[in-house]
Amino acid sequence: MRKALLALVLLATACGSPQLVGEDRPDLPSITGPQLEAQLAESGRPAVVNVWAAWCAPCRSEAPLLASAAAQHGDEVQFIGIDVQDNQADAKDFIERFGLDFDHYFDRDRVVPEYFGGIGTPITFFFDRSGDLVDTHLGVIDDRTLALGIDEITKR
Amino acid sequence: MEFTLLWAALTAVAAAWLGTRVWRASLPDSPTERIVSSAAAGLLVGRIAEMIGQGINPITNLSDLLIIRGGVSVPAATVAAIGTLWWTSNRDLSVVDSFSAPALVGLAGWHAGCLWRSACLGTVSDLPWALAEPGSTITRHPVELYAAVGLVLASLLVSRIPPKPGLRSAAALGLAALVRLVTEPFRLSVTGGPVFWYVVGLSLALLAGTALVWRQREI
């Protein structure tokens, strides 16, 4: 029993979260729904907008996938993160921890997801190059769904 | 939205149950319970492996285990499911063999469960049976339905293999890997999919099958 407990403690230590390293990042800027909508329309590029929060367990599960997708499709699609109902320090740590190397905005009052029509966290919105909302995925997004959404907005 | 995954899982269980009814003569007692317990063990181990791969500590983030949609490691889940079935069958390979065909039908049900999740479509196609996402004009391969059909055909093939211990299991593993490998080019993926592991599964099955046939001949 003691050996099992020791093994558990060692495993927990080995898999432990890395040190908080997001403190040096600048604070995330704020944005509203209409501002984001205008930005997307002006950009002329399709976009994946992910609504997340550092306190949200499902967001942890999809974060590595989003990081991979941004690294792979970042040239053709813009990835934007909307951090909701959070605090700046936790948000910056989350971005660092999962290597979410794309633009993020701070939305303490959840005005952006409410504007585009989505409940809960996480949410992933897919916008075409005109800035029109094509699809909304509520909850954790999986590999195939994200890939299909990206393929749809790049081909429209 | 999250409940669609549950519906897909229920479709898989229902399909596996149907398989146990079709091939009930060759099955031991409580076949559905054995399949469900093996699938549950596969899901749990596969989810833990995926979390570790994602850099999420499964001990300090225990509730994340329930977020199945966050990903399940296919190779870890496969090994755990087969291992659990083998263990609960008193390490009798012929019992494991008897579940090969129903398990493939269950897998087919899982793929057909894409209909509940609106997740059947893959790469762009203009074939007559290609389908489009709601509100889209881009037609695509219904790739998960291809996989479902392939797995049902595989189950029929496996059920006709002579009952030599381990042979049907090896064939089922190999055919499942082959079906996934053949359909993979029609899938869309950010991560590329576990193609390497399908090749490993197929190779292991071929090796095991060849060894079993060779041993039988020597006997």
Protein architecture, described:
The complex is a heterodimer of chains A (156) and B (219). With 156 residues, chain A is of the alpha/beta class. Chain A is built from six helices and five strands, in the order ααβαβαβαββα. In chain A, strands 3-2-1-4-5 form a five-stranded mixed sheet. Chain A starts with a helix and ends with a helix. The relative contact order of chain A is 0.21. Chain B has 219 residues and is mainly α. Helices cover 63% and strands 2% of the residues of chain B. In chain B, strands 1-2 form a two-stranded antiparallel sheet. In chain B, helix 1 (3-22) packs antiparallel against helix 5 (100-112) and helix 7 (143-159) runs antiparallel to helix 8 (167-183).
Distance between the termini of chain A: 59 Å
How many helical elements of chain B? 9
User: What percent of the residues of chain A sit in helical stretches (DSSP H or I)?
Assistant: 40-55%
Structurally, the number of domains of chain A stands at 1
Provide mean pLDDT of chain A, rounded: 89
Find the CATH superfamily of chain A: Glutaredoxin
Major sheet summary line of chain B: 2 strands, antiparallel
CATH class of chain A: Alpha Beta
If helices are DSSP runs of H or I spanning 4 or more residues, what is the number of helices of chain A?
Answer: 6
What ranges of chain A have pLDDT less than 50 throughout 5 or more consecutive residues? 13-20
Biggest β-sheet description of chain A: 5 strands, mixed
Return Rg of chain A in Å. 17 Å
- Quantity of strands of chain B, as a count: 2
